[in-house]
Amino acid sequence: MDLGEFRRTFDGDEPPKQLSRPLRALWHAARDQWDHAHRLIQTQDDVDSCWIHAHLHRIEGDLPNAAYWYSRAGRGVSKADLQTEWEEIVTALLAKDT
Question: pTM of this prediction?
Answer without folding.
Answer: 0.93
